[in-house]
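re: ur msg from earlier - yeah i can do the iron/sulfur cluster complex, just paste it... oh wait u already did. ok heres what im feeding in:
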Amino acid sequence: MPKVTIDGIEIEVPKGTTILQAARMIGPEVAPPTMCYYSKLKTSGGYCRTCIVKVSKGSAQNPNPMPKPVASCRTEVMDGMEVQNITSPEVLEARKGVVEFLLINHPLDCPICDQAGECDLQNLGYEHGAVKTRYEFKRREFEVIDIGKYIKLHMTRCILCYRCVKTCEQITDKRVHGVIHRGDVSEISTYIENAIENDFSGNVIDVCPVGALTDRTFRFKSRVWFTKPVDAHCGCNKCSGKVRLWLKGEEVLRVTARKDQWGEVEEFICNSCRFEKKKKSDWVIEGPSPISHQSVISQNHYNHLNEVKIQVLKQQKALGFAETKGDSVTRK
Ligand code: SF4
Ligand code: FES
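and the outut:
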């Protein structure tokens, strides 16, 4: 089994593993960000360049570095390879350029975008972006259109990651949309007068890393951080029935698939679960969804705040502070 070192951490991985997969095995600290790769979709990756890394040593056999940054989602590990992600200033600088490119045509309409708070591009821009763009030319403009009764397309927000195309190709019976034209006129479109309508089409909303494809049944109902996500299931005969409900009080505002720590859906769900079961009584609620404490969605919600408080109090006790009343502490 080949061994690879990523940001100074060595790991042994099965043959055929990509640098990105190896980095994910080590953990989120060294895993490069991804905007087009999706582990549940075959042949995804290779479009956005966000996952670039520096290969400072090609392999044990050929120790030469690779001449330019490589897309980690598409580059397989070689035995003895050495890779730099967060430890390479050049990679971080180059990634900043990639973000600038992705944002060339993407409008900064986060205040009115349904994806705000759970947008991969928003997070990427925050963590890797530049303060200003150097772009001075006219941006692409498109009308907002409905593609079917459940999905709205804002083409201006699309970053052409192809995830939605691959989702429809791989998990629905009939794909009726794709990327038409090339270069700066490329756009997501349905074949003439077609709508995206089949049992699993709603999954394109979940895989879209930005707010280009949004749920028409949820649009403008609430900012996502004002909702409370809980995991729930039902005895669906089309999909696993394992979903995430986004509640406001007793109301189910939105149903989505559950997502893992990489922001990818765990299991694709059917349209009946997503769009038709909007009552709490349709579901067996399992409990609060695990949400990263760095996410704006976790604001004021769950246990992590209590957990943080418990940890802080423990540390304070260990340091010789004694709890008095409320949250305040004094030195013993
Ligand atoms: S609509 Fe969304 S998922 Fe589809 S290509 Fe554009 S950004 Fe990717
Ligand atoms: S995630 Fe690798 S190129 Fe997009």
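cool cool. The first helix runs from residue 19 to 26. ping me if u need the other ligands too
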